[in-house]
Amino acid sequence: MVTRRIITLPPTLTGADAVAFAQDGLKRGADVIEVRTDLHAAGDIDPDALARVMPLLVSERGKPLPAPWIQAAWRVDRDVERAQDMDAPPGKLLASHHAEGPLTTAEALRRWSRPLPPDALVKHVEPMDGPAHLDVLLQTQAQLSQRFGAERVTVLGMGPVAIPARAVLSRSNGLEYVAMGGPWTAAPGQRLLDDVVREHRKAKDPRALRLGILGTSIAHSRSPRIHRQPFDRIDLAEAAPVEAVVDAMLPHYAGFAVTSPFKMRLAKHTGSSLEAINTLVRRGSRWESFNTDTEGARAVLERLGAKDVAVLGDGGSTQALRLVAAEQGLALRVVRRAEIQTPLTGDWVWTWPDRVAPPENLRFQRARVAVIAYGAPGRRVAAEIVRRGGTPLLLGAAWFVAQARRQRQLWETAT
Question: InterPro entries, from UniProt (predicted)?
Answer without folding.
Answer: Aminoacid_DH-like_N_sf, Shikimate_DH_fam
